[in-house]
Specification:
heterodimer; A: Rna Polymerase Sigma Factor, Chain: A; Arc Repressor Mutant, subunit A; 2 domains; B: alpha+beta; Immunoglobulin-like; 4-stranded antiparallel β-sheet; 7 helices; flat
């Protein structure tokens, strides 16, 4: 059965091909909706964000550069930014610690799935090995869009300490895949 | 080449930049540095890859029934297809208009002759005028050019010069006289440079500023179109 590559589908999108759009939507709707739902916790808002993410991808398909990243992470990154915009508008209450811990466990449980690549399983293992305060800071930044100052306030930690936690966490995860280096 | 000592404080900011949460001065300082430092840009790209991959750890969830149908209906009915076609037409159109303008400048040094030919060109395409301004970073550093065209439709074309802005996805925005903002969508800088044209939903003479907002709502690059 014909299974076009993500890049071919995006090229089709850029050319206004409706079949390419349908195939791309079917391929990624669960991931896009899953991310929006996880971040927003509200199915209605999640659907709006997921739909808008695909509409943006459609509008910008012509500008997509495959050398700059994969199609799935590109789509998810659009979804994340849209969800964060929503979260920032309605951010009033502090995050329930149990909910945050649930979010961390969700990532670590799914990331161990056998259907995932070795790279993603390694990433999950490194996430699990992070000190809890670093992992919380990373999740708050990634899935809630909190800035270092906001995380510091939530965690009652000085700004410098919070920045250092975020930095250490991401560098450790990167180190689990490849060394951050000057090498191309 | 950027001295290593200048890189160190910026490298400490790169994780926040990669996660899209860097703020204000930190962000502006980092973006300014990244514009001139390929090593730090490469590090940022690497960290951004990891930050993006974290999103793949979120479990998928099937959307509610009818999601695909509703979305495809919107995709088919909304402007994007028309808009994209327009964009494809616009880019060459803009390039052609600019090429004509440049040719005129070179070929007709006599100002009155130049003005006549410029007018003829606009009459040919039923346009009113073509304007250009410098796009500058906070502090006034030149990073590119913005062209605006008043016609049917009016459009803007933005080009950034090689190596002036860090690679990434920027937001293109118009500011109307009076301050109202109109988002025009994404503008990408790749391999050190970017260019893009867009039809705009108002007459160009109503535009006071064209702005590029750095990735994650960071530094703002502006071109102002003053009215005499």
């Amino acid at each position: 059965m014909w299974s076009p590559s993500d890049e071919a589908l995006l090229a089709g999108l850029a050319a206004g091909d409706e079949r390419a759009a349908a195939t791309l939507v079917r391929r990624y709707q669960a991931r896009v909706f899953g991310l929006a739902l996880t971040m927003l916790g509200d199915p209605e808002a999640a659907e709006e964000v997921a739909q808008e993410a695909f509409l943006r991808a459609w509008r910008h398909a012509g500008a997509y550069d495959h050398r700059r990243g994969r199609v799935d992470t590109w789509l998810l990154s659009i979804t994340r930014n849209l969800a964060i915009d929503r979260l920032r508008l309605r951010r009033t209450n502090p995050i329930d610690p149990a909910k945050l811990e649930g979010m961390e466990l969700l990532l670590m449980r799914h990331g161990r799935g056998e259907d995932l690549s070795d790279d993603l399983r390694n990433l999950t293992a490194s996430l699990a090995e992070l000190p809890p305060e670093q992992r919380r800071a990373l999740v708050l930044a990634t899935l809630y869009g909190y800035t270092a100052a906001e995380i510091g306030e939530l965690e009652r930690a000085p700004l410098g300490t919070t920045k250092s936690r975020i930095r250490s966490a991401l560098l450790k995860l990167r180190g689990a895949e490849r060394e951050v280096s000057d090498d191309p | 080449m950027t001295p290593e000592r200048d890189c160190q404080p910026i490298r400490e900011l790169l994780p926040e930049l990669a996660l899209g949460i860097a703020e204000g001065d930190d962000r502006a300082r980092a973006l300014d540095h990244l514009a001139d430092c390929p090593d730090c840009r490469r590090r940022l790209t690497q960290l951004s890859e990891t930050a993006d991959e974290l999103l793949l750890l979120v479990p998928p969830e099937e959307p509610p029934g009818g999601f695909e149908g509703r979305l495809l209906e919107r995709l088919q009915s909304r402007a994007p297809r028309t808009r994209r076609r327009l964009l494809r037409v616009l880019a060459p159109a803009a390039a052609a208009a600019l090429a004509v303008a440049l040719t005129l400048v070179l070929a007709y040094r006599d100002q009155r002759q130049l003005a006549d030919r410029y007018q003829e060109t606009l009459t040919e395409v039923d346009g009113k005028y073509l304007a250009g301004e410098r796009l500058t970073a906070p502090g006034g550093r030149y990073v590119g050019k913005v062209y605006g065209y008043e016609g049917e439709p009016s459009w803007v074309l933005v080009t950034t010069d090689e190596g002036e802005l860090p690679d990434g996805r920027y937001e293109l925005e118009l500011v109307r006289e009076g301050g109202a903002r109109i988002g025009l969508g994404e503008f990408r800088v790749a391999d050190g440079a970017g260019s893009g044209g867009e039809a705009i939903p108002l007459d160009f003479h109503q535009v006071a500023q064209v702005r590029l907002i750095g990735p994650g709502r960071g530094a703002v690059y502006e071109a102002s179109f003053g009215r005499d």
